[in-house]
Specification:
Helix content is 25%, strand content 44%. With 682 residues, it is α+β, with helices and mostly antiparallel strands. The chain has 4 domains: 1-36; 37-129, no CATH class; 132-254 and 307-679, no CATH class; 262-300. The strands form 5 sheets. Strands 6, 7, 8, 9, 19, 20, 21, 22, 23 and 24 form a 10-stranded antiparallel beta sheet that branches. Strands 17-25-26-16-18 form a 5-stranded antiparallel beta sheet. A 4-stranded antiparallel beta sheet has the order 5-4-11-10.
Length: 682
């Protein structure tokens, strides 16, 4: 009995202790949850991070989806914060804690640490998510006024460009564009008039489906900006396209359909049987049915004429990559319209800004020792590499629905571009640069130094002299992989006397004054005078001329005649080039493709007259076709070469005979292509 009473007292005592101890009760019923108040001196705060982790969408009108660029991910941000602020307090078992949920950082720390965390996040926003701002100026300028900019790739002060445009007078017709976005984001701005027109007919059997297209007049600019690792310059990929003076020609497709009944249908048979049953005359019934049938098909007969619209306009465009000091202008490219209007050239200048002119420095946080600072070096220009922009083919057989569709197409992958160095096994110039940087700054005598890739940046903790070396190394590696090159291309028709003298000369390299004497000789004519800035290993283009559509062919399938239109460029050119580095660094190997039509194309209009007969169980169909067909005749210069061009001098790329004119009269002159390249980092 006493033992039982003792056990009862013990149970009651334990139950009372449980009821009176809320902490023990919470531990028993909510194991794993932590509802304890923060330790003394600690507070919990939240930090939204969406602006640092937001995927960057392209706004160029091509594909407004994410381009897979995210400045930093959540793990990058957490590691940077833990390294920069109170690094010894972030232990696995607290009391300091850093968690994240739906793009929000939840931190339990002391007040003074929270102040440092806010400071670091402000620094990250300044370093990792700066805005890209640019000004683009497009102006018509005389070749002599542009020469100093094409010869010298040095940056242009805003005041100097303003004076040059004012000196050009009203004929310059300058247009100004302001562009804003994020680093690495493709953005677009422009003004245009768009004309919808019937450009084609898709024919399938008896179905004629009209195809509407768009002709564009106006000017459109696309741009993408990325900082160099030292933040002093901005890499800008820029594309321009324009069209003006739109006119429409027409082509006609005439159709004639005749149908006659050959076998009475079941309804006629039923009517005849009914006529017999009613005592009617069979002959009268047959005649009535035949007449009715013939009238029906005569009313259904087609004599139609469809008119296709064929636009023609002055057009041009280019894709270029320039490296410009923050806040300065640079010549991105020119559009030479001299084959249409002598002496007219459009020049496109760009002035970019991204963040500040120096790498943002973080000081005054507990993760630093004396003389050290944190910096975040942007690597996007190295990671992304230059994209390829092959030239549109205006001499191809098939046409696209939009006359400018090739200009607006997404860039293609560049075989020379670096791959992501942070993916295991992916070789790249950037990965090699990071490896050498780590070796330089993290050997045993520098154990406190940090050089770590974070997102599209390098997160570093170094002293000032080491920071200077780091910025210089990364920028040098960027230029080694793809320094921009200014290419100046001249296509000249030389007189027979000048061309013979040139061809028999042993010299193939000229300086500017010597070339001016050669092309200024009597009987010579400059056909193309073009400047374009391209990244090393990048393929880019420029074109200008009179762009027009024509009826090129008919796809025939049975009794279907499907018209096919195409495009051609006359009184114009298409230039496509890719510079590649050489071991000496004093020259560049250039793949160059040039197609030029120095004169107007002649298009002879012919007509396709045809018919087809289709026999059926009840009818015979006779389809007559009268369709316009265009037969273009043009003189084409086509040069595809690879040449080693010494920097700063003109070299002969190739030469060929001038084509005869559309009248068949031979042209005795020789077409000679000259090229001069200048590296922008020289």
């Amino acid at each position: 009995m006493n033992r039982a009473i003792g056990m009862l007292v013990l149970i009651v005592a334990f139950a009372g202790m449980t009821l009176l101890s809320p902490g023990l009760r919470a531990e028993e019923h909510n194991e794993g949850d932590d509802f304890e108040p923060p330790p003394e001196g600690f507070t919990e705060q939240t930090y939204p991070l969406s602006d640092l982790m937001r995927p960057i969408a392209n706004l160029s009108g091509e594909n407004e989806e994410s381009n897979n660029i995210v400045p930093l991910n959540i793990n990058d941000i957490k590691e940077i914060l833990k390294t920069s602020v109170a690094p010894d307090t972030w232990r696995a078992h607290g009391p300091a804690r850093m968690d994240d949920e739906n793009g929000v950082l939840i931190v339990l720390q002391k007040k003074e640490v929270h102040e440092e965390l806010a400071k670091v996040l402000d620094w990250l926003r300044e370093s990792a998510a700066p805005a890209f701002h640019g000004t683009v100026v497009v102006a018509a300028m005389k070749p002599e006024a542009l020469q100093k900019y094409t010869d010298d790739p040095a940056p242009i002060e805003p005041a100097d460009l303003q004076k040059a445009i004012e000196d050009a007078g009203a004929a310059a017709h300058p247009e100004f564009f302001e562009i804003n976005g994020a680093e690495g984001q493709r953005i677009s701005v422009g003004s245009s008039v768009r004309h919808r027109y019937l450009g084609d007919i898709d024919v399938a059997g008896a179905v004629y489906d009209p195809v509407l297209r768009t002709a564009v007049e106006g000017l459109r600019i696309q741009a993408l900006g990325m900082r160099t690792p030292d933040c002093k310059n901005v890499h800008v990929e820029i594309r321009a396209a324009f069209g003006r003076d739109l006119k429409f020609d027409t082509a006609k497709v005439k159709l004639a359909l005749v149908a006659t009944q050959t076998v009475q249908n079941s309804n006629a048979d039923a009517d005849k049987d009914k006529g017999k049953k009613d005592g009617g005359d069979k002959k009268d019934a047959d005649a009535k049915d035949k007449k009715k049938s013939e009238e029906t098909f005569a009313n259904d007969g087609l004599n139609k004429e469809m008119t296709l619209s064929l636009p023609a306009l002055t057009a041009g465009g280019f894709a270029a990559t320039v490296e410009v000091p923050q806040g300065k202008f640079a010549l991105a490219g020119t559009l030479d319209l001299g084959l249409i209007e002598k002496g007219e050239k459009l020049a496109v200048f760009v002035r970019p800004n991204i963040g500040t002119e120096n790498v943002a420095t973080l000081l005054g946080v507990s993760g630093l020792k004396e003389g050290e600072s944190f910096r975040l070096y942007p690597l996007l220009a190295m990671l992304r590499g230059p994209a390829d922009y092959p030239a549109p083919n205006f001499f191809s057989r098939f046409a696209d629905q939009n006359m400018f569709s090739n200009l607006e197409a997404a860039p293609t992958a560049n075989a020379y571009a670096p791959r992501d160095p942070f993916v295991s096994g992916a070789p790249s110039a950037t990965g090699e640069s990071m490896r050498r940087a780590k070796m330089q700054f993290q050997e045993k005598v520098r154990m406190n130094k940090i050089v770590e890739p974070r997102g599209s940046f390098v997160f570093t903790r170094l002293k000032d002299d080491d920071h200077a070396k780091m910025a210089a190394r990364l920028t040098s590696d960027l230029h080694r992989a793809g320094a921009p090159v200014r290419a100046h291309v001249l296509l000249v028709a030389l007189s027979p006397e000048s061309s013979r003298k040139l061809m028999f000369s042993s010299s193939r390299v000229f300086d500017g004054p010597a070339l001016n004497v050669l092309i200024g000789a009597p009987g010579s004519e400059t056909l193309v005078d073009e400047a374009l800035t391209v990244a090393m290993n990048q393929r880019s283009f420029v074109f200008a001329g009179h762009l027009r559509e024509y009826v090129a062919d008919y796809d025939i399938n049975g009794d279907s005649y499907d018209p096919a239109t195409d495009r051609l460029l006359d009184r114009g050119f298409v230039l496509d080039l890719r510079p590649m580095p050489t071991a000496s660094g004093k020259s560049t190997d250039v793949e160059i493709r040039l197609a030029a039509v120095p004169g107007a194309a002649e298009i002879k209009r012919s007509t396709v007259d045809a018919f087809s007969v289709s026999s059926g169980a009840e009818v015979n169909l006779v389809l007559g076709i009268g369709a316009d067909l265009d037969l273009p005749h043009l003189g084409l210069l086509d040069l595809r070469q690879t040449v080693r061009a010494p920097f700063g001098q003109y070299i002969i790329v190739g030469a060929t005979q001038m084509p005869p004119g559309v009248d068949g009269k031979p042209d005795p002159r020789q077409a000679v292509l000259f090229l001069r390249t200048v590296s922008e980092d020289k």
